[in-house]
Specification:
With 115 residues, this protein is α+β, with helices and mostly antiparallel strands. The chain is 37% helix and 17% strand. The chain has a single domain, classed as Ribosomal Protein S8, Chain: A, domain 1, CATH 3.30.1370. The protein is globular and about 35 Å long.
Length: 115
């Protein structure tokens, strides 16, 4: 059974509020299905909108952690074997060892540690 799920939140160019709703639904699905890590593709703001989804969703991650919906998170820029939370996520979902964004400093993705 896979322990990692990838979701493209930016698909369809949602508003920030719609993206937050989609993301929370995905987090809840992951809880129900035993997924340990959720990789989110939110884009990095090259469309001239200043990265509204990236910055807004990343602010929401702290709320999710505070509310107990997630254990932690890592931005794509931090996703590395030298980042403590990233290492915890790799331990929870070993398939992350071969993820294309490991050590790539990709600002268009983030990782949520679900359980």
């Amino acid at each position: 059974m896979p322990l990692l799920r990838e979701v493209t939140i930016k698909e369809g160019l949602p508003t920030l509020e719609e993206a937050k709703r989609r993301l929370l639904l995905e987090v809840r699905k992951c809880h129900g299905e035993g997924i340990s890590v959720l990789k989110i593709i939110h884009g990095y703001g090259s469309g001239g909108r200043g990265g509204v989804l990236r910055t807004g969703l990343r602010k929401a991650f702290a709320e999710y952690q505070r509310d107990g919906d997630i254990l932690g998170y890592a931005s794509g820029e931090d996703f590395s074997i030298f980042h403590a939370v990233s290492l915890e996520m790799i331990g929870a979902a070993p398939e992350l060892r071969t993820d294309r964004d490991l050590e790539r400093s990709n600002p268009g993705v983030s990782f949520l540690w679900i359980q």
